Amino acid sequence: MKRIDPEGFTRAPHFAQAVSVPANSRLLYVAGQVAGDGFAIAPPEDFEEQVERAFDRISTILEAGGMALTDIVKVNGFISDRANVATYRRVFLKRLGDTRPVSTLVIAELIDPRLLVEIEVVAAT
What we know:
By secondary structure, this protein is an alpha+beta fold. The protein is 24% helix and 28% strand. The protein has a 4-stranded mixed β-sheet.
């Protein structure tokens, strides 16, 4: 994979402007993950813990697909409150390190009001 940050664009520590994936790569698309298991397990009330649990679930799915968090090339994050942006970014950096995937973060109303974050990813090897 090649991270692309054109001249004149800010090089952010937590994401790249683009990621080039070779044509022969294997892709894994992971559906949006939240802190609970559907509606069967209630999510914690703490936003940071919800982000951590969503990344735990993503990690488990990637492992089942023969991949790891370091293989993520695209992240779409959806959070319910703009006040949580800094916390989301801190956990994002902690969990993804310097892998710098392409990233989008949206303030959105999620399907269950107890959910404060949902994260979907694309990974490639």
